[in-house]
């Protein structure tokens, strides 16, 4: 059984970091499967290049390409010590950058965009494999485009991934380090595609499940899942352990450390996920597994850009099929609903994709009076929130007593209670929750 180790953008963000990663992945001496992101900032630059090309501004795109090329050529000098590997990598980069430049000439569509955005991971993995080979490690690069595949609904196809990857692994037995690109894949039509921003975590989880790995380690720039958003709240702390459901709720509701859907493949395969800090490899990090710790609130997360839609209708009173009609409208615009609350005559729902909100509201008006609140935010409190537990709701509500709450959702799972508030109140809400839940230690029952 193998370990899967995934390193994010900051972890491979400079030649020095690439060397540290190389030391970490070779430390055990055991065969290891490594998933790498693009160097930090690169995917953003590639998105910027695509934006210029969509806007038919090849000069703008070329400026970004030139700056990126200069940066990478500098990295080559720092990373490798032999002229042989410097030249090998320069030759590779030459081809990469001429590919980027060639897309400034023709018609630009989402097909070209996905091809451009994929190059960040292709570059970082080639650079690290070349470095490992230069220092004498038996490392091999496996092309993610040969086995990562999504289906017609743009969902990963685990059966295909497993079949392809198993075959590729059996053709390459005896290596110490197997490296592949996170994020990138092919779609059902064989075209280059990706698993959306932050998707390298998802690759690691899918690969771990396909290989039946003993553990999936996600290495990043912080020592595990913190109990609140460290970008907003001070004095957050790493959580030692989460069960799969708790981690999935946190990832879905805004904890950026994990891609929203990346917990699922590991959970179904029963493979523990460990979150570790590349800058402090000895810190314990967070383990995500099947264990359920009772009686504890573990963490809080927040998801922005939420729109709340309320429909009030006297027709809902004693009517059957009302909710179905409402849901069908959202479904017809492929707009998932996050939160929902009902009363005798009304229903409120929240969505995070507001691109069809005008059409949805127009159709809902056939059935009742509709109101819309934008710039809202979901605050999700995660832990053992089994309904039989006493007092947790009170503590959480106490923390939010000064904040207007638009919706509350509780009882959908045993692991969370969620609140919809104004985005403008988010910081205050998160700070209050940290103070009440984690600094007074009142979260343990
Ligand atoms: P990577 O590039 O390694 O994938 P990300 O930037 O995607 O890293 O995720 C790590 C970042 O997630 C951290 O630097 C931190 O700012 C942010 N983050 C947001 N919420 C949390 C949380 N609850 N716990 C830990 N980190 C969080
Ligand atoms: N490089 C991609 C991004 O920046 C994927 C990832 O890092 O997970 O979104
Ligand atoms: Mg990430």
As residue ranges, the low-confidence spans are: none
Q: What is the CA–CA distance across the termini? A: 39 Å
CATH topology of the largest domain: Carbamate kinase
Amount of beta strand: 15-25%
Helices and strands, in order, run as EHEHHHHHEHEEEHEEHHEEEHEEHEHEEH
The radius of gyration computed from the alpha-carbon positions, rounded to a whole number of angstroms, is 24 Å
Tell me roughly what share of residues is in helical segments. 25-40%
CATH class of the largest domain: Alpha Beta
Family: Belongs to the aspartokinase family.
Domain Aspartokinase ACT: 379-435
Protein name: Aspartokinase
Binding site for ATP: 6-9, 220-221, 231
Task: Please describe what this structure looks like.
Helix 2 packs antiparallel against helix 3 and helix 7 packs across helix 8. The protein is an alpha/beta fold and 445 residues long. It contains 14 helices and 16 strands. Bound molecules: adenosine-5'-diphosphate, aspartic acid and magnesium ion. Adenosine-5'-diphosphate binds next to loops. Aspartic acid (ASP) binds next to loops.
